[in-house]
Write a structure and sequence with these properties.
Mean pLDDT: 89
Order of helices and strands: HHHHH
Distance between the termini: 43 Å
Radius of gyration: 19 Å
Low-confidence stretches: none
Oligomer: single chain
Amino acid sequence: MVARLIADQLAQKLGHSFLVENKPGASGNLGTDAVAKAEPDGTTIGVSIGGPLAINTLLFSKLPYDPAKDLALITMLATQPSALAVNTSLGVNTVSGTDRAAQAGARQI
């Protein structure tokens, strides 16, 4: 959605259309890799969330791109609220309660 809004504004400002191509898959790695490997001619711009740029470096043993070397982060477009959620049967409603439950569960394993 954010990319489409930006594309519309760029089209109005620059006088030509922009194609927004969604490339889902592999936790955002497919689209991010496409941007990282695109010709460096200024015609490909990526809009991403934190997963492919930061979190996936911890989740995947090998990525097809290096966010620090292959991409130039130029601006923050939007902020996205996040929530920590657990199954209600865990019986906690605070972060510290979740932490204690996780530690207790780890001791049982």
